Every structure is written in structure tokens, then in C-alpha cells.
Amino acid sequence: MSFLGQLTSKMTKKKQDKQKEKSRAVAQGLFKIKRSFFGKLGDFFSNARQLKESLYEELEELLILADVSTKTTCMLLQDLRHKAVQLKLKNTSELKDIFVNKLVELLCTAGEQKLAINSKGPTVYLFIGVNGVGKTTTIGKLAAQFKAQEKRVLLAAGDTFRAGAKEQLVSWGKRIDVDVIQHETGSDAAAVIFDAVQSAKKHNVDFLFCDTAGRLHNNANLMQELMKIERIIKRELPSAPHETLLVIDATMGQNVIQQTEMFAQSLSLTGLVLTKLDSSAKGGIVLSLSHELKIPVKLLGLGEKQCDLQSFDPVTFAQVLLEDLK
């Protein structure tokens, strides 16, 4: 049985029904990705062409064009060549199951995909990332989802650098009836987070979401500020932050690997949020992030609506994108 088959066979019927419902939502968000890159993969494997070096080169080009990094592409091709020889495969259709299995395995081995929850006090999520990736919008959508579950949620406007950032988060707070801890624009961001943690503890808040400034990832001042915020949170609540989530724009392609590496050098990243997957993103970057950085993807931004922020489930993701390769 394939790796994907083993995972799905372990699910109860209730879980399977729930996954089908989620799969439909994810499929809508990933429609463009599926039609572009994964559609071409379907064409590649549909014809039982004889395996030869020119076909591996064709597959390599497809992977690179889909924003799979060179390193991950080389690993995939090396593994496929090895399996083809080992199993004495003769054509592309015979190689298809090996390829699908490897992709699913990559998506499943980066680490825990579920968001951490602190059962002994406030759960603190720290959101970081460069400007324009959708940090504040992600916070607002996630806060709305937890609020709908009757959780007590608090927001911290830690982006005191960008004009309008505080107002954007306050607008989300009003929309979903959630309080926002804020200071004046230009004030010390760490002081905002300090006040927010104190308020979360005092008022028995379930979840505290901390927004931060989004300058370039190679900005030394930004990194120092983020490290200070992290220290403040740990000092006031030793088990926190329970998630440090890097929000990245999936349309940026392979550029996000270097960006993620830079943030990971200064902070203990626990997960990634991939936004704008409903746009011009090609999807292959998910494989490279899982393979090279071993940082799990935890949330997917699949559209403008609140419900379009979906938790990342590698089985669902793989099933939606690879179903035409079955």
C-alpha cells in the first residue's frame, strides 16, 4: 500500500467525511495550482513513454518551473532514477506511483502540522514576516475562527512601525468583537507585547495573537526587535510563544527559502503560513520548505474570506493536487 493509502486507511468514517468536506474547500483554493503545474504532471505521467534520460530532464524542468528548488528537484530525480532501476520500471506510467508516494512522504515528514495549544494558560502565537505577505489579515481570520469556537481572544498591535498597521488590526478587532492592545505608532513594540501578555494573564484569555512589524528579513533592526519581543514573551510566560509563525507569500516562489532561513537564524520558528495560494503561486515551494528546512506548514491562505484560511493537512493537500495522477 502506498504512503498516502496507509494514512487514509487509518481514518475513521467520521474523519473521512470531515476530510472530504475540507478537501472540497481546499480544492477550490488550489484550483489554479492544480490547473497549471499539477495538470502538466498529469499529462507527463498519463502517457506510457519509455523511460530515458530526456524524460527525466523534462520532469526536472516541470519541477523547477513549479517553484520546486534545485536541491529538492535533484533529490526527487535521484530517488526516482534509483527506484526505476531497482524495480526495473520501463515507462512513465509505472513511475507515477513512486513519484506520488515520494511527494506525500515529503509533505508529511517536516514536523507537527497542528497548531500548539497551551492548556495551562494563555496560548500565545507570534506572527512574523515581511511587508505585504498578509500577517495582519491572517491574524484577523484566525482570531475570527477561534472566536466562533467561543474562545477568549486578544490581539496585540505589535507593528508600531508601519503607518496604518495598528488601525488595520483594530478594524479586525471591531469586526469580530475582539479587544486589541495598542500603543502609539512609533512606540516600543516590545512594550505593546508586554502589556498584551499581562492583560491575557489577568483576564484569562485563551489565545493571544501578536502582530509584528514587517520590514525586510535582512533588516538588522527588525531582527533585534523581534528577538526582544520573543525574550519579553518568554520572560513573562516561560512556555510561550507557543507558536512562532512565519507568514510568507507563496507567489514569491523560491525566494521564500532564503527569507525563511534568515528568520530562522534569529528566531525559533515553529511553523509557516503560506498565503495567496489562490493567486499565481505554483505550489512547488511547499515541497522545498518541507524537505530543506524541516519547518512544517501549518496554515494555508486560499482566498479572501475568513473560512479561506485553512489548517494544513498534508494528506488533504496531496489528495487534492495529485488526484489526477492516480
Descriptive notes:
The protein is of the alpha/beta class and 326 residues long. Helix content is 53%, strand content 13%. It contains 13 helices and eight strands. The chain has helices at residues 3-9, 13-29, 31-46, 53-65, 70-86, 92-108, 135-148, 165-176, 189-202, 220-236, 255-266, 285-293, 314-322; strands spanning 123-128, 153-158, 179-181, 207-212, 243-249, 271-275, 297-301, 309-311. An eight-stranded mixed β-sheet has the order 3-2-4-1-5-6-7-8, with helices on both faces. Helix 12 links the parallel strand 6 and strand 7 (297-301). Helix 2 (13-29) crosses helix 13 (314-322), helix 6 packs across helix 12 and helix 11 (255-266) packs parallel to helix 12. The longest helix has 17 residues, at 13-29. The model has no long low-confidence stretch (mean pLDDT 85).
Question: What does the radius of gyration come to?
Answer: 21 Å
**Percent of residues in helices:** 40-55%
Percent of residues in β-strands: 5-15%
End-to-end Cα distance: 13 Å
Q: What order do the helices and strands follow?
A: HHHHHHEHEHEHEHEHEHEEH
Number of helices: 13
Low-confidence stretches: none
What is the global morphology?
Answer: elongated
Look at the helices and sheets and give the structural class.
alpha/beta
Q: Would you count the extended β strands for me? A: 8
Mean pLDDT: 85
Topology:
Layout: H1 3-9, H2 13-29, H3 31-46, H4 53-65, H5 70-86, H6 92-108, E1 123-128, H7 135-148, E2 153-158, H8 165-176, E3 179-181, H9 189-202, E4 207-212, H10 220-236, E5 243-249, H11 255-266, E6 271-275, H12 285-293, E7 297-301, E8 309-311, H13 314-322
Parallel strand pairs: 1-4, 1-5, 2-3, 2-4, 5-6, 6-7
Antiparallel strand pairs: 7-8
Helix pairs in contact: 2-13, 3-4, 4-5, 5-6, 6-12, 6-13, 7-8, 9-10, 11-12
